[in-house]
Amino acid sequence: MGVKTDLKEAFKFIYKAKYDKTWGEHELDCVFIGEYDGKVKIDPDEADDYKWVKISDLAKDIKENPQIYTPWFGIILSRLH
C-alpha cells in the first residue's frame, strides 16, 4: 500500500477458528499501531481497493455483517475499540 510510518507493538494474542471439518486457523497474531496521513499506492497484485473509515463505523459494520470479516479482525477491533 506504500505506507511508511513508525509502528509500536500494541499486543499479541493466540486464537483458533474452525471453518469446516478440514480447514481452520491457529495463529499467533501481533498487532502494531501507527499513524499515517499520506497517499496510498495500491499494488494490484495484493489489493483491489481500500477505504478509510471511522472506528465507530467499522465496529457497527462488523456487528451487522460479521460474515465479511475474519475472526481475528473482530478480536483486534474489540481490543482496540
TrEMBL record:
Gene3D superfamilies: Nucleoside Triphosphate Pyrophosphohydrolase (3.90.79.10). The keyword Isomerase applies. The keyword Thylakoid does not apply. GO terms for cellular component: cytoplasm. SUPFAM superfamilies: Nudix. Transmembrane segments: none annotated. Coiled coil: none annotated. Keywords: Isomerase. GO terms for biological process: isopentenyl diphosphate biosynthetic process. GO terms for molecular function: isopentenyl-diphosphate delta-isomerase activity. This is Isopentenyl-diphosphate Delta-isomerase. It comes from Candidatus Woesebacteria bacterium GW2011_GWA1_39_21. The lineage of its organism: Bacteria, Candidatus Woeseibacteriota.
